[in-house]
Amino acid sequence: MYEKALKDGVEKDRSIRVNIVGNYKQGKTSLTKRLLGNKVRRIKSTNGVDIEHYTCFKTDAGKLKYRKAEYHISDIAERLASAALNSELSTSTLVGSQCKQQTTFYMSTDIQRFEHCASDKDTKRKQICSDTQLTAVLSEKEIDTFTKALNRKASPSKENIATVFDIWDFGGQYVFYATHTIFHSKRAIYLLVFDLSSNLKSVVIDKDFPAESNDRNMEYFLQFWMQSIHSFVGSEDGTEPKVILVGTHKDKIKGSTERKKRYIEKYFDDVRKLFDGTKMLKCLYHEDFAIDNTDSKDASITALRETICTLGNEEKNMLEIPTKWIQLEKSLKERKHIEILSLEWVMAIDRENDYPLGDLEQVKLFLKYHHEKGTFIYFDEEPISEYVVLDPQYLIDAFKKLITSERFATTDPEIRPAWKMLFTDARLEKCLVDRQWGQDGLFLEYQEILLAFLTKHLIVSEATIFNEITETSTGLGWYVVPSLLRNYPEKHDMQDFLLGKEQTHIRLIISFKYSHIVQTIYHRFIAALIAKWSIVKTSRKTLIFTNLCVVRLDRNHAGIAEMKLSGIELTVVNLCPSLQVEGGKADIFRRYSEAVIIHEFKRLRDKKENSPPYTLMCRCNHRSHGMKGSVNIATIEELNNEKLVPCLDLSDHALDADKAKSEWFQDCRKPISVPNVYLNDKLLGKLSHCIGENWQLLGYELGLTRVQLEHITEDHTNSTLMKIYYMLNTWCRQMPATATLENLVRAMQNCQALSVEWDELRNIVDGIV
C-alpha cells in the first residue's frame, strides 16, 4: 500500500524526533532548554513526559536557530511546493492534479453526523462545522505561498530547508517507567543523559521508591535505558535507533584543563564498556558530548545540535511519504483541539478531502507513520484501534494525573486518602480517577477511552473477585497499578498458602537476555494476569506483592508468577490438598504468559523479527527443595526425549521429565477441546498464521484436488500465508456443511508432517471458548 501511494508523488520527511532519557536529576530538562536556545532557570523535575515542537533553520551566517513550531496552514502549501519541485511530476501536472487550487467543497453529512453526535454542551465540536460552511483545499494566502515557491526555478538548498524538531523530555523517576515504553519510537534519535560529576558506582536513591533503588547505581540506570531502547524499538542488528551519550555538569569537574579532559574521556569509555560484547554497542553514536548547561555559549551544545540535525537529515533516515497524505494531516491538525477522534470520524474526514486515501488500511498506515513521528497517537489494537489521539501531550497529561510521583500529587484533603491508598497499596479508586480527570474538565469527556488506553497498555487492571459457583470473575470497580506495588511477601504468606498442596513438577522460567528490563515486563505481565484472572485471597492476605502474584485459574487451580533477577518464574498449584495438578492447566497459564510477553516486545518493533525475546528454562520443583525449587536450572530442551533425569541439584530423587514437560506443553498429541463453530474470514486469517510447511498435505486431507492446490500456488506466488488462507477459503466454499473448526483441527492432527504452531492454535481456540 505504501509503495503504491508513493507513485502519486512524494515529499521528503524532514522532521526529527529526539527522545531525551536518563535517570532523574541528570540535567535532561536543562539540556532541552539549551538545545532550543532557551534560558535555564527555575528548572523543575519533569512530570511524565514534556514535548517541545520547534522549527530549526540556518541563518545566512550559517548558525542554527529555533522557533516555536505552532501549526500554520501555510506550512502545507510550502511542503506541497517543495514536493512538487523535487518530484518527477511536471509543475503543470501537479498544479492541475495535486492541488486543484480553486476547488472548494461542502462538508458532507458524514462529518456533520459524527461532529453533531456530541451533546449540546460540547462547544468545541460545534465550532468545527455547520451546514453552510465551505472548506477550501488552499486559502488565497496558501495559493500565493504555493505559487511563489513553485515558480522558483530550483528547489531550496538543504541548508535553507527548515527542519521540525520534536523533543520528548522523559521524566526519570521510577514511577514513570510504566508509561514510558508507550512513547518509545524506532524513528527517534535518543540522547542518553547522565551527570559526569557522579561516580558510575554511586547509588541513586528515588525518594518515592527507596526500596526499588537502594542498591542501584548510575551503571544500572544507564544499562536499563539502553536495554529498554534496544528491547522495545531496536533493530535486530542493533544499529538503530541511534543513541548519543551526553554527559552533563561538566562545570563541576575539578582540576586542570588536561585533567578534566582525561576524566571525561575515561568516563565516556567506562560507559561504553558497559555494553561491550552486546548489539547495543552498535547503536551508540561514535562521538560523545560533555555539556555545561550553565553556559549558554558552550561549544559542545552547538556541536550536539549540529550532530542531531546531521543524523536526522541523513538521506537514509529521510523517509519519502506520499504527498496525498498531507491533506489528511492538515485536516486532523486543524481539529487538534478536539484531542481524540474516532477512527470512523477520521475516515469520514478523509472522504471529504480532494485526494482521499479512501481505504481503511491506507489510513491506518498513515496513522502508524505519524504515531512513530509523534504527531498523533494510534495503536491498531482492539478496542483502542477505534480512536486516534490528535495531541500526544494530552494523553501524557491524562496519564500523569494518576500515575505520578508523590511530590506531584495534590494535597486536596478530600482525596488525600485515595492518594495514600494508591501510593501504599497500588489501589486506584474510581473516585480518584473522577476527581483528577474531572478537575479542570479536560479529561472527563474521554474518561472511558483514556481508561481503555491504560488497561490495554497494561498499566492498570480492574480488580476482580472469583465466583465459586459460576467460576467467573466479577469487577470490583477499582484498579490495581502493578508498578506502584511496594510490599514484599513475608515467608509465612506463601508457606501457609502452599502447605499440603501439590504443584507442577517443575517451575517454568521465562529467562530474559537483559535483566534490567525484567521489572518493566513483569509489571505489564501482572496487569495482564489480573485482567484475565482474579487475584487469590486467603483468610489472611491478598496474594499480590511487588515481586509475586497468585491468580485463580479455575476452581481448583492457581497460577503463581514470581519476578526473579533475570526472568519470571511460573508455577501452578492444585488448591485441593493431595490432588495432582490437572493436565493442561499449566499449559494454559504458560501460553497466555508467553503471548503477553511476546506482544509487549513486538508492539513497537518490526513484526518480521520473529526471534523470541527470552529462553524457557526450568527448576526442579520437588517438595524437598522448599518453596524456591532447585538451585540449578536447565533449558526445557534438556528434558526432551527423556523419561527420568537426575534432579538438577543431584538430590536424592529423580525428575520425571516426560510428565514434567507434558504439564506445561500440550502438543498435538494431547486432545484439544474445540467448539463446534463454523469458520469465517476473520477466523481463517488467524488460523492461516498457525500453519506452515507441507500445508498442501492439509489441503489433500480436507478434500481439495491437486489441480486446485496448483492454481492456488500459481495465483499467490509471493506469499505462503495467502496460499494457506485461500486453501482454507476454498475448502469452506466447497464444503460449507463440514467447514467447522472442529473438523479443521482434526485434519491438522491427522497430518503428521504438517508444521503447526500448536500454541497459537490453542490460543485461538481458548479465545473462542
Principal-axis shape equals globular
What is the arithmetic mean of pLDDT? 83
Please summarize the sheet with the most strands: 7 strands, mixed
> How is the largest sheet built, in terms of strand order?
4-3-7-2-8-9-10
Stretches with pLDDT under 50, minimum 5 residues: 88-136
C-alpha Rg (nearest Å):
29 Å
CATH architecture of one domain, by name, is 3-Layer(aba) Sandwich
What percent of the residues sit in helical stretches (DSSP H or I)? 25-40%
What key phrases describe this protein's structure?
single chain, 769 residues, alpha+beta, Rossmann fold, TATA-Binding Protein, Death Domain, Fas, seven-stranded mixed β-sheet, seven-stranded antiparallel β-sheet, 29 helices, 38% helix
Question: Would you write up a description of this structure?
Answer:
With about 775 residues, the protein is an alpha+beta fold. Among the domains are: about 15-70 and about 160-315, P-loop containing nucleotide triphosphate hydrolases (Rossmann fold, 3-Layer(aba) Sandwich), CATH 3.40.50; about 490-665, TATA-Binding Protein (2-Layer Sandwich); about 680-769, Death Domain, Fas, CATH 1.10.533. The strands form 7 sheets. The chain has a 7-stranded mixed β-sheet, with helices on both faces. Strand 24 (about 645) and strand 25 (about 655) form a beta hairpin. The longest helix has 18 residues, at about 585-600.
